[in-house]
From TrEMBL:
Pfam families reported for this sequence: ECH_1
Signal sequence interval, chain numbering: none
Organism classification: Bacteria, Pseudomonadati, Pseudomonadota, Gammaproteobacteria, Lysobacterales
Protein name: 3-hydroxybutyryl-CoA dehydratase
Ranges in coiled-coil conformation: none
Sequence similarity: Belongs to the enoyl-CoA hydratase/isomerase family.
Gene source species: Rhodanobacter fulvus Jip2
Keywords linked to the UniProt accession: Lyase
GO MF entries: hydro-lyase activity
Length: 260
Protein backbone atom coordinates (compact mmCIF):
# COMPACT_ATOMS: atom_id res chain seq x y z
CA UNK A 1 0.00 0.00 0.00
CA UNK A 2 1.46 3.38 -1.01
CA UNK A 3 0.96 6.28 1.38
CA UNK A 4 1.51 9.95 0.61
CA UNK A 5 2.08 11.04 4.21
CA UNK A 6 3.43 7.95 5.92
CA UNK A 7 6.47 5.77 5.65
CA UNK A 8 6.05 2.18 6.77
CA UNK A 9 8.92 -0.19 7.50
CA UNK A 10 9.20 -3.52 9.27
CA UNK A 11 12.00 -4.73 11.51
CA UNK A 12 11.16 -8.35 12.29
CA UNK A 13 7.85 -8.31 14.17
CA UNK A 14 8.09 -4.55 14.74
CA UNK A 15 6.04 -2.41 12.39
CA UNK A 16 7.30 1.18 12.24
CA UNK A 17 4.80 3.82 11.10
CA UNK A 18 6.37 7.22 10.50
CA UNK A 19 4.29 10.33 9.86
CA UNK A 20 6.18 11.86 6.98
CA UNK A 21 5.35 15.56 6.46
CA UNK A 22 8.49 17.05 7.99
CA UNK A 23 8.07 20.37 6.12
CA UNK A 24 4.81 20.83 8.10
CA UNK A 25 6.26 19.33 11.28
CA UNK A 26 4.15 16.22 10.56
CA UNK A 27 0.89 18.08 11.20
CA UNK A 28 -2.19 15.87 10.94
CA UNK A 29 -4.35 16.83 7.99
CA UNK A 30 -7.36 14.76 6.99
CA UNK A 31 -5.39 12.68 4.51
CA UNK A 32 -2.79 11.79 7.13
CA UNK A 33 -5.49 10.84 9.64
CA UNK A 34 -7.06 8.56 7.01
CA UNK A 35 -3.71 7.01 6.15
CA UNK A 36 -2.91 6.40 9.82
CA UNK A 37 -6.27 4.66 10.16
CA UNK A 38 -5.41 2.37 7.23
CA UNK A 39 -1.87 1.69 8.47
CA UNK A 40 -3.05 0.72 11.95
CA UNK A 41 -5.80 -1.50 10.51
CA UNK A 42 -3.13 -3.21 8.41
CA UNK A 43 -0.97 -3.68 11.53
CA UNK A 44 -3.93 -5.12 13.44
CA UNK A 45 -4.65 -7.72 10.74
CA UNK A 46 -1.04 -8.73 10.10
CA UNK A 47 -0.19 -11.69 12.36
CA UNK A 48 3.51 -11.09 11.74
CA UNK A 49 3.25 -7.71 13.48
CA UNK A 50 3.58 -7.95 17.27
CA UNK A 51 4.43 -4.32 18.11
CA UNK A 52 4.00 -0.96 16.42
CA UNK A 53 6.37 1.99 16.77
CA UNK A 54 4.82 5.33 15.83
CA UNK A 55 7.28 8.08 14.90
CA UNK A 56 7.52 11.46 13.19
CA UNK A 57 9.94 12.18 10.36
CA UNK A 58 12.78 14.66 10.80
CA UNK A 59 14.51 15.98 13.88
CA UNK A 60 12.09 18.69 14.94
CA UNK A 61 8.72 17.12 15.56
CA UNK A 62 6.92 13.93 16.40
CA UNK A 63 3.71 15.66 15.32
CA UNK A 64 3.11 19.41 15.84
CA UNK A 65 -0.66 19.06 15.97
CA UNK A 66 -3.71 18.94 13.78
CA UNK A 67 -3.20 20.87 10.54
CA UNK A 68 -4.05 24.46 11.46
CA UNK A 69 -4.17 25.65 7.84
CA UNK A 70 -6.74 22.98 7.03
CA UNK A 71 -8.79 23.63 10.18
CA UNK A 72 -8.81 27.39 9.59
CA UNK A 73 -11.69 27.22 7.10
CA UNK A 74 -13.80 24.58 8.85
CA UNK A 75 -17.41 25.16 9.76
CA UNK A 76 -18.57 23.85 13.14
CA UNK A 77 -20.07 20.82 11.37
CA UNK A 78 -16.82 20.05 9.58
CA UNK A 79 -14.96 20.51 12.87
CA UNK A 80 -17.32 18.02 14.51
CA UNK A 81 -16.56 15.44 11.81
CA UNK A 82 -12.80 16.14 12.05
CA UNK A 83 -12.88 15.69 15.82
CA UNK A 84 -14.85 12.45 15.54
CA UNK A 85 -12.50 11.02 12.89
CA UNK A 86 -9.47 12.01 15.00
CA UNK A 87 -10.97 10.54 18.15
CA UNK A 88 -11.83 7.29 16.35
CA UNK A 89 -8.24 7.01 15.15
CA UNK A 90 -6.90 7.56 18.67
CA UNK A 91 -9.29 4.98 20.11
CA UNK A 92 -8.40 2.48 17.38
CA UNK A 93 -4.72 2.84 18.30
CA UNK A 94 -5.47 2.46 22.00
CA UNK A 95 -7.61 -0.61 21.25
CA UNK A 96 -5.34 -2.10 18.58
CA UNK A 97 -4.74 -5.20 20.69
CA UNK A 98 -0.97 -4.89 20.10
CA UNK A 99 1.40 -2.62 22.03
CA UNK A 100 2.12 0.72 20.35
CA UNK A 101 5.18 2.80 21.31
CA UNK A 102 5.33 6.51 20.51
CA UNK A 103 8.90 7.57 19.66
CA UNK A 104 8.98 11.28 20.49
CA UNK A 105 12.10 13.17 19.44
CA UNK A 106 10.73 16.74 19.24
CA UNK A 107 7.42 18.59 19.41
CA UNK A 108 4.36 16.55 20.42
CA UNK A 109 1.80 19.32 20.46
CA UNK A 110 -1.98 19.36 20.24
CA UNK A 111 -3.04 16.42 18.08
CA UNK A 112 0.56 15.16 18.35
CA UNK A 113 0.35 14.91 22.11
CA UNK A 114 -3.08 13.33 21.74
CA UNK A 115 -1.63 10.80 19.30
CA UNK A 116 1.22 10.00 21.70
CA UNK A 117 -1.22 9.61 24.58
CA UNK A 118 -3.28 7.10 22.60
CA UNK A 119 -0.18 4.88 22.37
CA UNK A 120 0.61 2.44 25.16
CA UNK A 121 4.15 3.74 25.74
CA UNK A 122 5.81 7.10 25.23
CA UNK A 123 9.59 7.09 24.92
CA UNK A 124 10.96 10.60 24.60
CA UNK A 125 14.21 12.35 23.84
CA UNK A 126 15.31 14.95 26.40
CA UNK A 127 14.71 17.46 23.60
CA UNK A 128 11.02 16.57 23.19
CA UNK A 129 8.30 19.04 24.15
CA UNK A 130 4.73 18.12 25.04
CA UNK A 131 1.77 20.47 25.10
CA UNK A 132 -1.86 21.17 24.38
CA UNK A 133 -1.57 24.68 22.90
CA UNK A 134 -5.03 24.75 21.29
CA UNK A 135 -6.21 27.50 23.65
CA UNK A 136 -3.73 29.84 21.93
CA UNK A 137 -5.75 29.31 18.73
CA UNK A 138 -9.09 29.89 20.45
CA UNK A 139 -9.68 26.14 20.41
CA UNK A 140 -9.76 23.19 22.71
CA UNK A 141 -8.17 19.76 22.17
CA UNK A 142 -10.42 17.75 19.87
CA UNK A 143 -8.77 14.35 19.49
CA UNK A 144 -9.30 13.19 23.09
CA UNK A 145 -6.67 15.35 24.79
CA UNK A 146 -8.83 16.65 27.63
CA UNK A 147 -9.88 13.08 28.45
CA UNK A 148 -6.66 11.09 28.00
CA UNK A 149 -4.50 13.69 29.75
CA UNK A 150 -6.97 13.68 32.65
CA UNK A 151 -6.72 9.90 32.87
CA UNK A 152 -2.93 9.75 32.45
CA UNK A 153 -1.86 12.60 34.69
CA UNK A 154 -4.92 13.74 36.66
CA UNK A 155 -7.07 16.84 36.76
CA UNK A 156 -4.32 19.21 37.90
CA UNK A 157 -2.02 18.48 34.98
CA UNK A 158 -4.87 18.33 32.45
CA UNK A 159 -6.18 21.73 33.46
CA UNK A 160 -2.70 23.26 33.63
CA UNK A 161 -1.54 22.06 30.22
CA UNK A 162 -4.82 22.76 28.41
CA UNK A 163 -5.52 26.13 30.06
CA UNK A 164 -2.02 27.60 29.84
CA UNK A 165 -1.19 26.06 26.45
CA UNK A 166 2.45 26.17 27.53
CA UNK A 167 4.55 23.20 26.40
CA UNK A 168 6.46 21.20 28.99
CA UNK A 169 9.78 19.38 28.75
CA UNK A 170 10.03 15.62 28.40
CA UNK A 171 11.45 15.48 31.92
CA UNK A 172 8.40 17.32 33.32
CA UNK A 173 6.12 15.03 31.29
CA UNK A 174 7.96 12.08 32.84
CA UNK A 175 7.44 13.48 36.34
CA UNK A 176 3.73 13.86 35.59
CA UNK A 177 3.46 10.23 34.43
CA UNK A 178 2.78 11.19 30.82
CA UNK A 179 6.07 9.82 29.47
CA UNK A 180 7.46 6.38 30.31
CA UNK A 181 11.14 6.98 29.54
CA UNK A 182 13.28 10.05 28.85
CA UNK A 183 16.66 9.48 27.25
CA UNK A 184 19.45 11.41 25.57
CA UNK A 185 18.68 12.10 21.90
CA UNK A 186 21.30 9.63 20.68
CA UNK A 187 19.86 6.89 22.91
CA UNK A 188 16.29 7.27 21.64
CA UNK A 189 16.40 4.65 18.89
CA UNK A 190 18.22 2.04 20.93
CA UNK A 191 15.77 2.53 23.82
CA UNK A 192 12.72 2.29 21.54
CA UNK A 193 14.17 -0.74 19.74
CA UNK A 194 15.00 -2.55 22.99
CA UNK A 195 11.48 -1.97 24.34
CA UNK A 196 9.92 -3.03 21.02
CA UNK A 197 12.07 -6.19 20.94
CA UNK A 198 11.05 -7.07 24.48
CA UNK A 199 7.36 -6.61 23.63
CA UNK A 200 7.74 -8.48 20.33
CA UNK A 201 8.58 -11.75 22.08
CA UNK A 202 5.99 -11.34 24.86
CA UNK A 203 2.89 -13.56 24.72
CA UNK A 204 0.63 -11.62 22.32
CA UNK A 205 -2.72 -12.85 23.63
CA UNK A 206 -1.68 -12.15 27.22
CA UNK A 207 -0.55 -8.67 26.14
CA UNK A 208 -3.94 -8.07 24.51
CA UNK A 209 -5.70 -9.24 27.70
CA UNK A 210 -3.59 -6.93 29.85
CA UNK A 211 -4.29 -3.92 27.63
CA UNK A 212 -8.02 -4.70 27.56
CA UNK A 213 -8.19 -5.12 31.32
CA UNK A 214 -6.22 -1.95 32.09
CA UNK A 215 -8.06 0.20 29.54
CA UNK A 216 -11.53 -1.10 30.40
CA UNK A 217 -10.76 -1.04 34.11
CA UNK A 218 -9.92 2.64 33.94
CA UNK A 219 -13.49 3.33 32.88
CA UNK A 220 -15.37 1.14 35.37
CA UNK A 221 -15.90 0.53 39.07
CA UNK A 222 -13.32 -1.73 40.77
CA UNK A 223 -15.61 -4.76 41.03
CA UNK A 224 -16.42 -4.62 37.31
CA UNK A 225 -12.74 -4.18 36.47
CA UNK A 226 -11.84 -7.15 38.66
CA UNK A 227 -14.50 -9.29 37.00
CA UNK A 228 -13.13 -8.28 33.60
CA UNK A 229 -9.67 -9.32 34.79
CA UNK A 230 -10.98 -12.71 35.96
CA UNK A 231 -12.56 -13.39 32.56
CA UNK A 232 -9.40 -12.37 30.70
CA UNK A 233 -7.30 -14.46 33.11
CA UNK A 234 -9.51 -17.51 32.51
CA UNK A 235 -9.38 -16.98 28.75
CA UNK A 236 -5.57 -17.12 28.87
CA UNK A 237 -5.87 -20.74 30.06
CA UNK A 238 -7.43 -21.65 26.71
CA UNK A 239 -4.29 -20.59 24.81
CA UNK A 240 -1.32 -22.64 23.60
CA UNK A 241 0.88 -19.79 24.78
CA UNK A 242 -0.15 -20.30 28.41
CA UNK A 243 0.77 -24.02 28.17
CA UNK A 244 4.06 -23.07 26.50
CA UNK A 245 4.89 -20.39 29.08
CA UNK A 246 4.23 -22.60 32.12
CA UNK A 247 5.88 -25.68 30.52
CA UNK A 248 8.96 -23.66 29.57
CA UNK A 249 9.24 -22.42 33.17
CA UNK A 250 9.15 -25.98 34.50
CA UNK A 251 11.62 -27.18 31.86
CA UNK A 252 13.89 -24.24 32.70
CA UNK A 253 13.98 -22.95 29.13
CA UNK A 254 12.86 -19.78 27.39
CA UNK A 255 9.26 -19.80 26.18
CA UNK A 256 8.43 -19.21 22.53
CA UNK A 257 5.02 -17.59 22.17
CA UNK A 258 3.08 -17.92 18.93
CA UNK A 259 -0.05 -15.94 19.67
CA UNK A 260 -2.26 -19.02 19.68
N1 LIG B 1 -0.50 22.78 11.35
C1 LIG B 1 -0.09 23.17 10.13
N2 LIG B 1 1.15 23.53 9.84
C2 LIG B 1 2.05 23.51 10.85
C3 LIG B 1 1.70 23.12 12.14
C4 LIG B 1 0.37 22.72 12.38
N3 LIG B 1 -0.05 22.30 13.57
N4 LIG B 1 2.79 23.21 12.92
C5 LIG B 1 3.80 23.63 12.13
N5 LIG B 1 3.35 23.82 10.88
C6 LIG B 1 4.10 24.28 9.70
C7 LIG B 1 4.36 25.76 9.74
O1 LIG B 1 3.22 26.49 9.28
C8 LIG B 1 5.54 25.87 8.83
O2 LIG B 1 5.09 25.77 7.51
P1 LIG B 1 5.65 26.81 6.38
O3 LIG B 1 7.13 26.56 6.35
O4 LIG B 1 4.96 26.40 5.13
O5 LIG B 1 5.29 28.18 6.87
C9 LIG B 1 6.32 24.61 9.13
O6 LIG B 1 5.38 23.69 9.71
C10 LIG B 1 7.45 24.80 10.12
O7 LIG B 1 6.91 25.37 11.30
P2 LIG B 1 7.46 26.73 11.94
O8 LIG B 1 6.34 27.34 12.75
O9 LIG B 1 8.10 27.59 10.92
O10 LIG B 1 8.59 26.15 12.91
P3 LIG B 1 9.15 26.82 14.23
O11 LIG B 1 10.35 26.04 14.60
O12 LIG B 1 9.29 28.28 14.08
O13 LIG B 1 8.01 26.58 15.36
C11 LIG B 1 6.35 25.29 16.53
C12 LIG B 1 7.69 25.26 15.77
C13 LIG B 1 5.97 23.85 16.82
C14 LIG B 1 6.53 26.06 17.86
C15 LIG B 1 5.27 25.98 15.67
O14 LIG B 1 5.30 25.40 14.38
C16 LIG B 1 3.87 25.86 16.21
O15 LIG B 1 3.52 26.55 17.16
N6 LIG B 1 3.04 24.99 15.59
C17 LIG B 1 1.67 24.85 15.94
C18 LIG B 1 1.51 24.08 17.23
C19 LIG B 1 0.05 23.99 17.60
O16 LIG B 1 -0.59 24.95 17.93
N7 LIG B 1 -0.48 22.76 17.58
C20 LIG B 1 -1.85 22.49 17.92
C21 LIG B 1 -2.70 22.55 16.72
S1 LIG B 1 -4.41 22.26 17.14
Amino acid sequence: MAYRNLEITNRGAVNVITVNRPDKLNALNRETLNELGMAFTQAAYDDAVRVVVLAGAGEKAFVAGADIAEMHGYTATQAQAFSRVGQQLMTSIERLGKPVIARVQGFALGGGMELAMACHFRVASEKAKFGQPEINLGLIPGFGGTQRLLRLAGRGAALELCLTGTPITAQRAFELGIVNRVVAPDALDTTVDALADQLAVAAPLAAAGIMDAVLSGGETALDQGLEFETQAFALAFSTEDMREGTTAFMEKRKAVFRGR
